[in-house]
Amino acid sequence: ESSVTVGATAVTTVAVGWYLFQRLSTSDDKDHENDNDTPMIPRHERFSIRYADRSRTQSPEHPLGPRGQKALAPPLPYLGAFLTCLGDQCHPDTNPKGHIALCVAENKLVLDLMAERFMQSGSTGFSDSTVFTYNSMLGMPVAREAAAYFLARRFLWPPHSHPEPIAPQVALQEIKPKYIGFGAGCAALINHIFFLLGNAQTRDCCLIPKPYYAAFENDMNLIAGILPFGVDQANPAAGPTPEEWQTAFDQARAKGMNPKFVLITNPNNPLGTIYEPSMIRATIDWARSQTKHSMHIVMDEIYALSTHNPHALDKFQSVLKILNNDLGQDVHLLWAVSKDFGGSGLRCGLIYTQNELVMEGLATLSIFTAVSGPIQYLVAELLTDDVFVDFFLNESRKRIRTSYEICIGKLNEMVMPFIPADAGLFVYVDFSSLLPEKTFAWEEELSQFMFEQARVVLTPGQSQRDVNPGMFRICYAWVSPEVLEIAMERLSRLVSKIRRLDLEDWKQIKEGRDSNKLGTGNDEEHLARAFAGILD
Fold first, then answer.
1. Consecutive H or E run containing 271
2. Across residues 395-424, what is the average pLDDT?
3. Mutual angle of helices 373-383 and 141-151, in 10-degree steps
4. Sign of CA pseudo-dihedral 74, 76, 80, 82
5. How much is the average pLDDT of 499-525?
6. In this structure, are strands 331-336 and 296-300 parallel, antiparallel, or unpaired?
7. What's the pLDDT tens digit per position in 192-203?
8. Does position 113 have pLDDT exceeding 50, yes or no?
């Protein structure tokens, strides 16, 4: 139980803050619950509706400014449903009918390994007096040197291609610590890089292959003001071609935007696929060909060490290796302990850029997002402990793969198409065959059915800007294999019942829900009969 608590730290922090906000902003609910003019809205939908209703949260005497109002927008559209899961978590023995969140990309399968490692040397994080005092906001020297060694050992010269040990002095000669900065997770660093290099006044935008991680839009736009622009592609698993990048570039320009950035997540989230080095190289070459626009390429490699397909362990190549550590002034690498080490609650990410002006700007901005001294010290010890890291990554891959196979095994039984994943903590699934009509309204309805009838929350494709309704991301590493089996069995039963459901009946149920009439009479009874037994 303590491991579960540690693993949920980052998400719970956001959730608790939102919960308190929600309680304050909906204090008048009870006065209107029986008002016939008040729409009958399911509780999890009320979260997002209230969240978006900014006028109700404004104090006439002390209103928020425009930037504050912008911060009221939900960072994730499915946050309300996730909060319900936090308050009623499924447990195989004590709460088998509880809610199950499969919408958060965290690796909670390895928390026991991380806890044991840190408890062995936890006190050393406080043994050096420098952790109590001001240091460079970019990071303590010991942490930046450790990160430089780690990038050389795991990204530039990975063990599968360079099995021989690497002397620390050799690593630091190649990867200069002065080009490394720490921050409170990759979200903070993404904000910083866009803030430093972009200009909201000229409507600078970032090209991102669709579908993409749902929170990127918040990360780049909330403070830096950079606009996201999704890139359509014929084969999302392979990534955009130069022609597809150019098409998106031209479309953005036609809409009055100024394409300034390219953002690539490799391995990809939500697909779990690994891009070929040739695709990365071609993208960089294309971006550099836009000489009038001085574009920057942001490489998010936060899942770099989470390749779990035993036949693809050497498939991922970091941009460091692809470019032979010659990033120039326009390529910027991001990584964090959040995913590969299951340490999202540590709030520790890093940026590697050879742009010295960017590093100077980061030195000032980082006072708002600096990582605490003790955490830097612990992470420095972790990143330089090759024996433990080798053991940990091997064990992590095995555990991730076990859960992945549980997930796809049930999907195959359901005859539900999915994109085979080589890396990451998720699988991307096509549930569109269940939709009476291929629309995002019906995707939302299916998502609601999953939540209400199966008590399972997935990441809907619309929130990831997928162009095809019915796609969902399943984050299988957020729960134990035992709970995952329960979730997948519930989804299997739900799918079976939907397939037996007369589509006209489902449309009638949806019409009743949309008109806020569901909740009395035959519709509700029919719904209960149609989906009975899913939680048994």
1. none
2. 98
3. 30
4. negative
5. 67
6. parallel
7. 999 999 999 999
8. yes
CA distance 63 to 67: 11
Under 8 Å between Cβ of 509 and 526: yes
Question: Which pairing describes strands 258-265 and 459-460: parallel, antiparallel, or unpaired?
Answer: unpaired
DSSP, residue by residue, 67-130 = HHHHTTS-SSTTHHHHHHHHHTB-BTTTBTTSBEE------GGGHHHHHHHHHHHGGGGGTSGG
Distance between CA atoms of residues 491 and 497, nearest Å = 10
- 0.70 exceeded by pTM: yes
Are residues 82 and 47 in contact, defined by beta-carbon separation less than 8 angstroms? no
Q: Which secondary structure element, helix H or strand E, spans residue 531, and what is its range? A: none
Count CA atoms within 13 Å of residue 381 on its CB side. 18
DSSP run (H or E) holding 298: strand 296-300
- CA distance linking residue 510 with residue 157, whole number of Å: 55
> Which residue's entry shows tokens 């972790």?
382
Angle (CA) 365 368 370, round 5° = 95
Phi-psi region of 333 (alpha: psi -120 to 50; beta: other; left: phi over 0): beta
For 414, residues 6+ apart whose C-beta sits below 8 A from its C-beta are 491, 492, 495, 496
Rg over alpha carbons for the chain, rounded to the nearest Å, is 24
The tokens for 81 are 């449903």
Whether residue 242 contacts residue 286, with contact meaning beta carbons closer than 8 Å, is answered with yes
Amino acid at 224: A
Contacts of 292 (CB under 8 A, 6+ apart): none
Report, as an integer, the average pLDDT of 498-526. Answer: 68
- Residue 374 token pair: 């003790």
Tokens describing residue 288: 């550099």
Alpha helices in 265-318 (DSSP H): 277-289
Give the whole-angstrom CA distance, residue 195 versus residue 352.
16
Alpha-carbon gap, residue 274 to 276, rounded angstroms = 7
Higher pLDDT, 52 or 292: 292
d(CA 108, CA 7): 6
Report the pLDDT value the prediction gives residue 526, as an integer from 0 to 100. 66
Any idea which residue has 């990584």 for tokens? 335
> Which are the contacts of 459, defined by CB distance < 8 A and separation ≥ 6?
78, 102, 103, 214, 270, 426, 472, 473, 474, 475
Higher pLDDT, 49 or 35: 35
Tokens 């005497």 correspond to 61
